[in-house]
Amino acid sequence: MAPDGTNLNLSDGSYYLGGNVTISGEITISGAVTFDLNGYTLTCNATDEDMLCVYDGKTLTIKDSGTDGTIDGQNKNCGFSVSSGTLILESSIIANCRDDDGDGGAVDIGKDCVFTIRGGTISNCNAQHEGGAI
Q1: Is the pLDDT assigned to residue 5 strictly greater than 60?
Q2: What is the pTM of this model?
Q3: Which of 47, 51, 41 is nearest to 21 (CA)?
Q4: Which of 19, 37, 31 minimizes the C-alpha distance to 79?
Q5: Side-chain half-sphere exposure of 6, counting CA atoms within 13 A
Q6: DSSP state of 57
Q7: Average of pLDDT values for 10-19?
Q8: What is the rounded CA–CA span in Å between residue 123 and residue 25?
Q9: Taking every pair of C-alpha atoms in the chain, what is the biggest distance, in angstroms?
């Protein structure tokens, strides 16, 4: 995955961060994806973005095989938008996420979607309407 990309698309497969990465748009999940933070931090330098988006019945699994791997919304971006699909949080830190136009600062999850938490931490997340975390 290239740093500082705009609207990246991840298809079926496993992806690992090899260092801290800053994106400038959203990452859309278009398959069965495992995203390993590998001890690093994913941030977004834009404002009011959904950093990782799961649509069309796709599945995203987030994990951290390192230590303290973090998705950091920098108090201006939502961590995840799941409008049709599945999000599985195996491990990692989801922090400082904000959704000023919706619900769920860390995870904005739609009707009939699945969100499974098996481990990890969600902290310091806010939303304008409901659910700072979810």
Answers
A1: no
A2: 0.86
A3: 41
A4: 37
A5: 2
A6: T
A7: 96
A8: 22
A9: 36
For residue range 79-107, list pLDDT tens digits in order: 778 888 999 989 897 887 776 666 666 67
Long-range CB pairs of 16-25 (<8 Å, 24+ gap) are: 16/65, 17/42, 17/69, 23/51, 25/49
The amino acid at 91? S
Q: What is the pLDDT of residue 36?
A: 97
Are 98 and 105 a contacting pair, CB within 8 Å? yes
Side-chain half-sphere exposure of 110, counting CA atoms within 13 A: 11
The type of residue at 70 is T
Arithmetic mean of pLDDT, 55-67 = 94
User: Any residues with CB less than 8 A from the CB of 42 and at least 6 apart, and which?
Assistant: 17, 20, 21, 22, 23, 51, 70, 71, 72
